[in-house]
Each structure stands twice: as C-alpha cells, then as structure tokens.
Write a structure and sequence with these properties.
Alpha-Beta Plaits, Barwin-like endoglucanases, alpha+beta, five-stranded mixed sheet, globular, 154 residues, 3 helices
Length: 154
C-alpha cells in the first residue's frame, strides 16, 4: 500500500511502468507485483501511494497512459483466460471439471486477499496475448463467461 506498486493482468512481474493521469498530466513509476484488476474497463490497480502521487485517490479511477520503462519483455511468456473466481474451492473445482474436456488445460490458482482465499479458474497456456484474447472472445460468446486475459506466472 505504501510502496509504488501496481497490479496488471498481463505485464510481467517486476516490470517498471510509468503511469500518466491524462486528466492532470501527473506521472508516477510503479513496479508490477500483482495480478488484476479483474473489473471490466480497468487496466491497472495502483497502490495507495502511487494513486496519491497522480491525484486519483478522490475519484478512484482515471484515464491513464501506461509506458513500460524497464523489466522483463512483456511479449514473452504464456497467457491464459480467467473465467471465474470463487471463495468456495469446491465451486472452482466444479467449473474446472465442467470445462477441462473441451478447453484443456484448466487450472485453479489460489489467491490470498483481504476478503479470504479466492480460487481463480483459468483456461489455456497460450504463447501470445493475442491468442489468449481470441480464446477469451470465444469463451465470452459461446459460454457467456466474463473473461480476463492474464499472464501465467509459471
């Protein structure tokens, strides 16, 4: 919360990103250390300190520009599609079982949060973000899932 860090769905961990608030021109630099946000139309979650630095704490959201300034190559790695997050592990396991014959591989990734442990269900291990976006569109259109493309960390 007090460090200049952020969550992003696909940028690699430890990437340094310059975030510019397009409303007021203020900038800050953050290190990607988490995954998210998992809310439609949001691209980055800033720590409190970073949000204060660009004056977006009051409104809570702002139009921003992101520039990767250093760190691992953002186009290298594997990508997947998140299709659900559950507080009850059995619900995640049920969805995994339902999907794995048609969309392998399907995985469950635990995530510790202030609200408890979430069990995130993810599909695929794709070599590009573009391929993952294509799968996300297919899953949204055929299965009616709310989907998020994510970088797989292992």
């Amino acid at each position: 919360m007090h460090e200049f860090t952020a969550a992003h769905r696909t940028l690699p961990f430890n990437a340094m990103v310059r975030v510019t608030n397009l409303t007021n021109g203020r900038q800050t630099e953050v290190r990607i250390n988490d995954r998210g946000p998992f809310v439609a139309n949001r691209v980055i979650d800033l720590s409190l300190s970073a949000a204060q630095a660009i004056e977006m704490v009051g409104p809570g959201t702002a139009h921003v520009r992101l520039e990767v300034i250093s760190g691992p190559n953002p186009s290298v790695g594997y990508f997947g599609v998140q299709v659900g997050a559950f507080l009850v592990q059995e619900n995640a396991a049920r969805l995994k079982a339902q999907l794995e014959s048609q969309y392998p591989p399907v995985s469950i990734v635990p995530f510790e949060s202030a609200n408890g442990t979430f069990y995130r269900v993810r599909i695929g291990r794709l070599p590009s973000e573009e391929a993952a976006r294509s799968l996300a569109d297919q899953l949204h259109n055929t299965e009616q899932f709310t989907t998020f493309v994510v970088r797989l960390d292992n």
